[in-house]
Amino acid sequence: MDRRARPGDVARARERLGENQPMSPAYERPVYAYRRAADQDAVRAVRHPVVIVGAGPVGLTAAIDCAVHGLSNVLLDAEDTVCDGSKAICFAKRTLEIFDRLGCGERLVKKGVVWNRGRVFFGERQIYEFNLAPEAGNGRPAFINLQQYYLEQYLIERLGELDATKLRWRNTVTAVESRADGVGLTVETPDGPYRMLCDYLIAADGARSAIRHLLGLPCQGQVFQDRFLIADVVMQADFPTERWFWFNPPFHTGQSTLLHRQADNLWRIDFQLGCDADPDEEKRPERVIARIKAMLGEQTRVELKWVSVYTFQCRRLERFQHGRIFFVGDAAHQVSPFGARGANGGIQDVDNLIWKLALVLAGKAPTALLESYDAERIPAADENILNSSRSTDFITPKSEVSRAFRDATLMLAEHYPFARRLVNSGRLSVPAVLHASPLITPDADRFDSAPCPGAPCVDAPIQTAAGEDWLLRLLGNGFTGLYITAEHGKMPARVGRVIEQLAAGTIPVDVLVVGGRLTGDGPGRGIIDVAGLVQRRYGGRPGTFYLIRPDQHVCARWRRIELEAVRSALTRALARAAQRSERVA
Fold first, then answer.
1. What pTM, to 2 d.p., does this model score?
2. How many Cβ atoms are within 10 Å of 402's Cβ, its own excluded?
3. Reported confidence tier of residue 3, pLDDT bands at 50, 70, 90
C-alpha cells in the first residue's frame, strides 16, 4: 500500500485479505515454579536492602536496574506467569534508551514492530498524518509495539543473566509495617506465611496495588464513564506499520477506533463503546468479531486472542514516597491508555529512583536525595494525567457543544496545520523535563539548543576506538561529563587536569571528550562526532561541558569547564546543597 495514499484504504485492505494466508502462531505463557526460599526457614525475619512487589514491566525494570547498580534485591509476585493479553504495547524512544542502559533494548526492538508515523481520520477521510521521528541520527525509533507478555518474559530472562535478584513467584504480601529503620512484610505462600524485612520497599503492584490498600492510601483524580473495548486479533491485513485513529468512522458510527500492529501479525483494535455499554455483552466473541468484520469486511478471517473492556482513570497518590516505601508505575498513578503514558511513565519512575537508592545505600549520598523522587516524578505524573485527561475529553465529548467544537476542529485540520495542534487522539508519551527539580543547576551561560538542565540527553551517532556506536549507550550508570574540544581534539592542559580530578573523585565523573580524532592517550574517553550531530544538538562550541546524571538527565552545562562549578553542581545533584563545603570530587 502506498503510505501517502488517502485511505479509503480500509476498503483497499479488505481487497487484499486472502482466505488462505497463514495466521499467527499462538503464544504460550511460561509458568515459573514456586520455590521455597531460605527466608521461610529462618528463625528471625531476614533483612534485605530492597524488596520490590509486582513483577510487571515496572517492577521487573526496577529489579534489573537494582542489579546493574549492584543492589541486592528480592522481587515478589503473587502470580507465576506473565500477563494475559497484550495490555501495554507502545514503548517510547526514551523507554528503549533506558532498556539499552539495562542491557535488553536490542532484543525488544528486534521482536517489536517499529513505527514513527501515524494517521488521523474523520469519517472515511484522512485529515492528516504525522511523523514522530522527522530527523535521522537517533539510535532508537519513536516507538515500538510489543505485547506486554513478551516484554515481561524478556525482562525475566534478562534478570536471569544478572546475579542480584531473588525472584519469588506465588508470594503475596498480606501485611506491611512501616518502621523508622525499614519496612516489615508478611508474605503468604503455598507453604504458609513468613516474615521479611527490608531497608526500602518499592511498590510496583499495579493499579489495584495491594500495598497501597494495606496502607490505606487513596488515589485522587477522575474516573471517566466512557467504556472502551480492547481486542487482540490475528488477521491478515495490508495496513502499514503506523498508528491509525478514526473519529466517527462509517464502520463504528458516532464513536472512535484505534488500530495498531503488534509482533506475530497480532493487531490491537480499540473501540469506543460509550458509557451505557454492557461489558459482559460487549466481550462476547461473536459481538467483537462482528465489529471487526464491519471494519474490514465479511470475508476477513479473524482469530480473537484476547478481549477486555475498560474505563479511563486519570488519578494519582498525593505522595509517591511514604517513609521507606516508594510507589512506582500504576501503583502511584493511572492514566488512560491513549498516549502510551502508563508503562512508559512507570519505567521513567524507576529510572529516576534506583540510582538514588544505590547511592544512599552505599553511603555516598544523604537520605535527602530520596526526597527528590516526589519532587521530580509528581510533576511528570501530573503532566501525563493532564494530557490523558485532555485526550479523553476530546475523544469522548461530554456535550453537543463540545462535540460540535471537536468536529469543527477535525474538519479544519484537514486543510490547516494550526488546527492539527488542537486535535487530540492521545498526546503520545514524551520524557519528562525536570524543570523545577532541586537537584538541577540552572544555566548561567547562554545556550540556544536543547537539552537544557533537567532534560534527558539526546542521542547522536559517534565513533569510539571500538567502532561505531551511539552517544547514549556510552553514558553508563554513573555520572558522566561531555566535553567538546576544538577541531582535531585539541585540549588545554588545564581542562585535562580538571577531567582527571573529576574521574578520581569519591563520586567519579567519567568524561567523554568529543573531538576531531580519538584521544585515547589523554584524559577522558575520546569519541568522534561522525555526523556533527553531537555538536549541533548540544550547542557545542569548543569548551562546552555537560554534567549528566546516572539517569541520563542533564545536571548542568557550561561554556567553560571549571572544577569548582562542576563540584558544586555535583553536590547539588546529590542533595548535599546544605553541605557545600564537603568535597565530593
1. 0.93
2. 13
3. very low
- 57-68 vs 93-101: helix crossing angle, rounded to 10: 40
> Please, are residues 320 and 332 in contact by the beta-carbon 8 Å criterion?
yes
Task: Look at strands 243-247 and 117-122 and give their pairing.
Answer: parallel
Secondary structure element (H or E) that encloses residue 313, with its range: strand 303-317
CA 341 to chain centre: 7
The phi and psi torsions of 555 (rounded to 5 degrees) equal -80, -50
CA distance linking residue 163 with residue 330, whole number of Å: 27
At 199, phi and psi to the nearest 5?
-70, -40
Question: Contact, 242 vs 130, CB < 8 A?
Answer: no
Identify the CA nearest to 197 among candidates 354, 325, 302, 8: 325
267 to 113, 118, 241, 243, 427: CA distances (angstroms): 11, 15, 10, 11, 21
The fraction of the chain above a pLDDT of 70, given in percent, is 93
Q: Beta-strand (E) ranges in 133-181?
A: 143-145, 165-169, 172-179
CA torsion angle for 407, 411, 412, 415 (degrees, to 10)? 160
> Distance between CA atoms of 357 and 50, rounded to whole angstroms?
9
Nearest C-alpha neighbor of 56 from the set 216, 202, 174, 213 = 202
Per DSSP bridges, beta strands 165-169 and 554-558 are unpaired
Whether residue 207 contacts residue 334, with contact meaning beta carbons closer than 8 Å, is answered with: yes
Residue-wise pLDDT tens digits, 442-495: 999 999 878 999 999 999 999 998 899 999 999 989 999 999 987 666 788 899
Domain ranges of the chain: 461-579
Nearest Cα neighbor of 228 from 260, 273, 258, 282 is: 273
Buried b (16+ CB within 10 A) or exposed e, 70-85: ebebbbbbbbbebbeb
Residues 344-355, mean pLDDT to the nearest whole number: 97
Task: Report the alpha-carbon distance of residue 111 to residue 154 in Å, rounded.
Answer: 10
Q: In what order do the strands lie in the sheet with 256-261?
A: 125-131, 117-122, 243-247, 256-261, 266-274, 219-234, 303-317, 333-334
Closest CA to 129 of 431, 429, 388, 423: 423
Q: What is the pLDDT of residue 7?
A: 39
Pairing of strands 73-77, 165-169: parallel
Domain 461-579 is found in CATH 3.40.30.10: yes
Least-confidence region, from 52-56, 238-242, 271-275:
238-242
Name the grid cell of 219.
Answer: 488515589
Residue 558 grid coordinates: 557550561
